[in-house]
Amino acid sequence: MNAVAHRRLRRSVSAFADAELPRLDRTRVGRHLADCPGCRNDLEVIRAVKVSLDRLGRRRPVAVASARLAHFAQRLGAGATP
Ligand SMILES: [Zn+2]
Q1: Rounded to whole angstroms, how far apart are CA atoms 1 and 56?
Q2: For 44, how many CA atoms within 13 A lie in the half-sphere containing its CB?
Q3: Residue 13 C-alpha to ligand 1 middle, in angstroms?
Q4: What is the Å distance from ligand 1's center to 77 Cα?
Q5: What is the SS3 assignment for 44?
Q6: Closest Cα to residue 39, out of 47, 22, 21, 51?
């Protein structure tokens, strides 16, 4: 495979992770992923980022504010200036 074809496939990995590719392209990218450790690594990173973003999205704003307030109170208790 030449570098241009590989670059095109590599750009499709994110769409593959999102299941946004038409079936034919999905099959083509899937076959490439089976043979290319670099693109498989990209896929793993993309999936890990998506999982992290999902988790962040599920955190309730109140929980985030409470955590910040607790951290602030802890710093005050330790004598730090806010
Ligand atoms: Zn590749």
Answers
A1: 39
A2: 8
A3: 9
A4: 52
A5: helix
A6: 47
